[in-house]
Specification:
The chain has a single domain, classed as Alpha-Beta Plaits. Helices cover 31% and strands 36% of the residues. It contains two helices and six strands; from the N terminus they run E-H-E-E-E-E-H-E. Helix 1 runs antiparallel to helix 2. The chain is globular and about 40 Å long.
Length: 106
Amino acid sequence: MPKYLFSIEQPDGPPPGNIGQIMHDVGEVEDAMREAGIWLFSGGLTPADSATVVRGTLITDGPYVEGKEHLGGITVVDVPDLDEALRWATRLGTVIGLPIEVRAFQ
């Protein structure tokens, strides 16, 4: 089955006040993914300002691009097709309340 990456696009700044409820709800969606046998792994990332970028031999502090959003976390699933990936990404995006980019691995 194809593997898909769900990239969670997080706005810069502090997390919302209801982050505890959001993380609880994310846990429930991930549990459902495990039960469906499609969940491979997921994780949140440290703040964007802790990133280090390597370009050949040049190493710089900070995120890859300057912007108002950054990659906040990822989930990787193994599902039959894009439609199924979109169904799960929609379910995850509903509880997180943030945009999720869905991309297949080559």
